[in-house]
Design goal:
The complex is a heterodimer.
Chain A (H helix, E strand, L loop, with lengths): L13 H9 L5 H16 L3 H27 L7 H16 L1 H4 L7 H20 L4 H21 L1 H4 L5 E2 L16 H24 L1 H11 L1 H6 L4 H27 L1 E2 L6 H14 L6 H19 L3 H15 L3 H8 L1 H5 L4 H33 L6 E4 L2 E4 L3 H32 L8
Helix pairs in contact in A: 2-9, 3-9, 3-12, 3-13, 3-14, 4-6, 4-12, 6-12, 9-12, 10-12, 13-14, 14-16, 18-19
Chain B lengths: L1 H31 L6 H19 L1 H28 L3 H23 L15 E5 L2 E4 H23 L1 H11 L1 H6 L4 H27 L5 H16 L4 H20 L4 H7 L14 H4 L3 H4 L3 H12 L11
Antiparallel strand pairs in B: 1-2
Helix pairs in contact in B: 1-5, 1-8, 1-9, 1-10, 2-3, 2-4, 2-8, 2-9, 3-4, 3-8, 5-6, 9-10, 9-14
Classes of the chains: A mainly alpha, B mainly alpha.
Chain lengths: 434, 318
């Protein structure tokens, strides 16, 4: 690590401090991710993969917008789906206003979605950003519930129970592209993903983004410096509302239908889960969270009815044991790599984590079998688990699952001290010191 | 006039039920500064446990045992979950209880399935207590009112008149001082958390037969409980009582009297537009009070937060 890159708060070196704050922009990750987005559809060509990727990209935009509040501003919102939903509903109305829509290229539509989200965020933010913490969380929940409930009543805008739908192809053709095919929509969404991610990253580097961090950590101190904590929160809130609206517009473009489900507390809860799972402490955390969660959702929900249960367990475990989320876990390993000792960790990791994974799979097998015994139709004793079909009411599978689980956890437990020791060794500065 | 009396009783039942939940929630909040999102989930667990116990031992043992089990579980959550997360700060604590609420709902679905449980009013209480102008009042409602009021009085007595209550109150405001006087403050916190969740459990036991015992019951009541304590002022027991009764009566009256928006607007001199079908405000014109009864608490909360952000009885700096 060179001297200049080191983040410092040394007051005698203001130039260096500035450098740490605003100039550590590296282009490489952006170019790499842009390239990956470009070639992904060439690797995974079938339609269902593109559908999953579209959903993933929309979730990433939404999760990043959410993290502008939670991670960077320290505001916990339980009703953020409302801004995405209203942005989406607004776009749907634009799509249905055929006179105007036929003069508007579809790729510009998310701007309007963002403005809808931002407008609503301005109204709500005018009274909700007065304080952070619990009060803010409560207001966000109340407003979220209120608007979700209104969506059933106000049929003219929200379309009642069946929602509203539109057709994206009526827009002005964009360089001859009419967005009939899924792949064209993919590139639109991927383009907006890059644009909004870059804008959100740049926002976090502006003075106002930096002040959002300061207000998150110590609002009183920020106020003594002459900044109004409330207005700093307000600006974070409306920009977050903007990008949530963009995500909602992308949803409208991709699915061409919006219902009450896009607004309700459940989807607000999901985005909180996604963001926290990925890690709120780093900019790229929500991206990892969105990718992992979408994969989990699509792959696991095909395999088991209980996927929401597993997601809940994973979420609670993350909050309790890894509050930094997946991003935090990844970043924990940076020092070991810097010291060039990361390979010390490989064997202990394999020896401990592999049995742990087997143990967890065994445990989930027990859970699935219990579920099958309790809830399957009477007389239906056969179940398929891990590519094997067996009778869930006989003893043998239970004994196998129990033994595998117990042995795996015993091995994990036995090898854990070794892993901890290797961890300490790998994180010790070569030549002494911690 | 008689209908007013019937609605007053119905609203009182709803309000007191809300109060049993919000009392525990507000106590826990003033103690730890953390809002327990899973509070309504403990209410649901109370109902399910009571149902399971009532299958074998009858309703009354359920009423006795289920809140105890829920309270012990609540204390366990505080001891092994919340205390661990506490070191990370307030926001992770909130997120933890939120995750717990999700998990408990999934767990209940895992054990009991997605359907409503046949948890019914006990035979002893299944009769009409009295009738007001042809509207019969079931004895079970009177029983619910009786239970809630006696719990409220008991809680008030313990908190204000006994030594334990004094220590709890002192620990709420000056935990460090109380600790240095030799009291085990973490134990007090755990106890209060357990009692708060047990109260939610009681509410679940007695509400289960009336409102239905199904996996969504926590979600239905959960957010209303938060609205209640925000309106009442976070951390204020009296505020929780007033707000609960207020919400109970408002929603009951809005549901039983069919007030139409059209009549109100006509009453203040706005004429109904002739082309109502195509009017952009058509949904506003056709609005009726039973339709919006369930969102009235939220509207009330938003108004309170705009004009009196610390709630009806809250302290200004809270």
């Amino acid at each position: 690590m060179s001297e200049q890159d080191q983040i410092t708060t040394d007051p005698t070196k203001p130039a260096q401090r500035m450098r740490a704050g605003s100039m550590t922009l590296s282009l490489t990750p952006w170019l790499v991710s842009g390239f990956v987005l470009l070639i992904l559809p060439l690797v995974f060509t079938n339609n269902s993969a593109i559908t999953i990727m579209n959903q993933m990209a929309i979730t990433i935009v939404f999760a990043l917008a959410y993290n502008m509040l939670l991670g960077q501003g320290g505001m916990l919102s339980f009703g953020h789906a409302v801004y995405a939903g209203v942005g989406g509903f607004g776009c749907m109305h634009i799509m249905n206003a055929s006179d105007f829509f036929s003069t508007l290229p579809l790729p510009l539509l998310p701007v309007f979605g963002g403005l809808f989200g931002m407008a609503l965020a301005m109204i709500v933010g005018s009274f909700s950003t007065r304080s952070a913490g619990t009060v803010f969380a409560m207001i966000s929940l109340g407003v979220g519930e209120l608007i979700a409930a209104c969506s059933i009543i106000i049929v003219a805008f929200f379309g009642g129970e069946e929602g509203i739908s539109g057709d994206r192809t009526y827009g002005l053709p964009f360089f001859g592209v009419e967005f009939l095919k899924q792949i064209e929509v993919y590139y639109l969404i991927a383009g907006w993903l890059m644009i909004s991610a870059a804008l959100m990253y740049l926002f976090s580097r502006t003075p106002i983004g930096r002040m959002a961090n300061a207000v998150r950590d110590n609002p009183e101190r920020a106020e003594f410096l002459g900044y109004s904590a409330r207005w700093v929160r307000f600006y974070s809130f409306i920009f977050s509302g903007f990008f949530a609206g963009v995500a909602g517009a992308l949803f409208a473009i991709n699915y061409e239908i919006l219902t009450e489900e896009n607004l309700n507390t459940a989807s607000s809860g999901v985005i909180l889960l996604v963001t926290f799972l990925g890690g709120v402490g780093f900019f790229f955390g929500p991206i990892i969270g969105a990718i992992a969660f979408t994969l989990l959702q699509t792959v696991l929900s095909l395999q088991t009815e209980l996927w929401a249960f597993y997601a809940g367990v994973l979420f609670v475990a993350t909050v309790m044991f890894f509050p930094g989320g997946l991003a935090g876990l990844i970043m924990m390993h940076v020092p070991a790599f810097k010291f060039g000792k990361a390979r010390l960790l490989l064997m202990p990791y394999l020896k401990t984590l592999l049995p742990a994974v087997i143990g967890i799979l065994g445990l989930s097998a027990l859970v699935e079998m219990t579920f099958h015994v309790r809830h399957a139709a009477t007389g239906e004793n056969e179940m398929t688990l891990f590519w094997t079909t067996f009778d869930s009411h006989s003893f043998l599978p239970w004994i196998i699952a129990l033994v595998v689980t117990a042995v795996a956890f015993w091995v994990t437990r036995r090898n854990t001290p070794e892993m901890v020791e290797a961890w300490h060794k790998a994180n010790t500065f070569p030549g002494g010191g911690a | 006039m008689e209908l007013v009396l019937v609605n007053l009783i119905d609203g009182l039942v709803t309000g007191l039920l809300l109060f049993m939940l919000s009392a525990g929630l507000t106590l826990i909040f003033s103690m730890m500064g953390v809002l327990n999102f899973a509070h309504a989930s403990f209410y649901m667990l109370g109902a399910y446990f009571a149902y399971q116990i009532s299958l074998g031992l009858g309703f009354w043992m359920g009423l006795l045992l289920a809140p105890l089990i829920v309270g012990v579980m609540g204390a366990g959550v505080e001891r092994y979950g919340l205390r661990r997360v506490h070191q990370y700060g307030h926001v992770p604590e909130l997120i933890f209880t939120f995750g717990l609420a999700l998990l408990i709902e999934e767990l209940v679905q895992f054990i009991w399935g997605k359907n409503q449980m046949p948890y019914d009013i006990p035979e002893v209480l299944n009769f009409t207590a009295f009738a007001i102008a042809g509207n019969s009042i079931p004895a079970y409602k009177i029983f619910m009112i009786f239970i809630s009021i006696s719990i409220f009085i008991g809680l008030l007595y313990i908190l204000t008149k006994t030594r334990v209550g004094m220590i709890i109150q002192a620990a709420l405001s000056y935990p460090r001082t109380v600790e240095s006087l030799g009291h085990n403050v973490p134990l007090i916190f755990m106890g209060v958390f357990g009692v708060g969740t047990a109260l939610a459990g009681v509410a679940g036991v007695i509400a289960g037969p009336v409102l239905g015992t199904f996996p969504g019951m926590a979600f239905v009541l959960g957010s209303i409980v938060f609205v209640t304590i925000v309106i009442g002022g976070l951390g204020s027991l009296w505020g929780a009582l007033v707000a609960s009764l207020l919400i109970g009566w408002i929603t009951t009256f809005a549901k039983s009297y069919n007030v139409r928006m059209e009549d109100i607007l006509n009453g203040i001199g706005i004429v109904t537009p002739s082309d109502l079908e195509d009017n952009i405000f058509r949904d506003l014109w056709t609005l009726t009070s039973p339709q919006i009864a369930d969102i009235l608490p939220y509207i009330l909360m938003v108004l309170i937060l705009i004009f009196r952000p610390y709630g009806l009885f809250g302290k200004r700096d809270a």
